[in-house]
Specification:
The complex is a heterodimer of chains A (116) and B (108).
Chain A (H helix, E strand, L loop, with lengths): L3 E4 L2 E4 L5 E7 L6 E7 L5 E8 L5 E2 L8 E7 L2 E6 L8 E9 L5 E4 L3 E5 L1
Parallel strand pairs in A: 2-11
Antiparallel strand pairs in A: 1-3, 3-8, 4-5, 4-9, 5-6, 7-8, 9-10, 9-11
Chain B lengths: L2 E3 L4 E5 L4 E3 L2 E3 L5 E7 L6 E5 L10 E2 L10 E3 L8 E8 L5 E3 L3 E6 L1
Parallel strand pairs in B: 2-11
Antiparallel strand pairs in B: 1-4, 3-8, 5-6, 5-9, 7-8, 9-10, 9-11
Classes of the chains: A mainly beta (116), B mainly beta (108).
């Protein structure tokens, strides 16, 4: 089946720094990718929709300047958490939609971000 | 408002007992509903979708538009079914809205 890979799986950064998380569709092209945030023992919260070649669409309440999304190619979307703070610590998950398979959505393994 | 509700945070059953994980939704259009499963330390994966009306790993789910429900059922739970289960609704934009998730614990 289709595979979506995230890198890094976990990252620790200092407050005030920026950190980038990559999401790749390994064996299919994804015109649309989605970024979610998941707090411990809570549901996935959709942050933004990443569209290849255009600006991301952010959900209400998500700061676009804080969470920069770039979808430069059909297989790669990146999420950059800028000027990270401890409250940004979370599990970030991306998903990608594979066209032609009933638009099945595949999820990455997630990336743990800890801001210290 | 578009919403998915899973009223139970935790469902604990003994092996061999029937399981029903509840999911209710609120959506103005024609919903496309899914169940996703997340085993310990693994990624989220699709369990089943209502349009395919399939049974995966013994699980089934029927869309009840009258009750706006999409409950997940299995007649005989197995220990390996222990996981986090998420009900999700797909908007016409392709976005998935997730319920809060239910942890299923199957005891030996």
């Amino acid at each position: 089946g289709a595979v979506v890979s995230q890198h890094p799986s976990w990252v620790i950064c200092k407050s005030g720094t920026s950190v980038k998380i990559e999401c790749r569709s390994l064996d299919f092209q994804a015109t649309t990718m989605f970024w979610y945030r998941q707090f411990p023992k809570q549901s996935l919260m959709l942050m933004a929709t990443s569209n290849e070649g255009s600006k991301a669409t952010y959900e209400q309440g998500v700061e676009k300047d804080k969470f920069l999304i770039n979808h430069a190619s059909l297989t790669l979307s990146t999420l950059t958490v800028t000027s990270a703070h401890p409250e940004d610590s979370s599990f970030y998950i991306c998903s990608a939609s594979q066209a032609g398979s009933g638009n099945t959505i595949y999820f990455g393994e997630g990336s743990w971000l800890t801001v210290v | 408002a578009q919403r998915v509700t899973q009223p139970e945070k935790l469902l604990s059953v003994f092996k061999g007992a029937p399981v029903e994980l509840k999911c209710n939704y609120s959506y103005s259009g024609s919903p496309e509903l899914f169940w996703y499963v997340q085993y310990s330390r693994q990624r989220l994966q699709l369990l089943l979708r209502h349009i395919s009306r399939e049974s995966i790993k013994g699980f089934t789910a029927d869309l009840n538009k009258g009750e706006t429900s999409f409950h997940l059922k299995k007649p005989f739970a197995q220990e390996e079914d222990s996981a986090m289960y998420y009900c999700a609704l797909k908007r016409n934009t392709g976005k998935l809205i997730f319920g809060q998730g239910t942890t299923l614990q199957v005891k030996p």
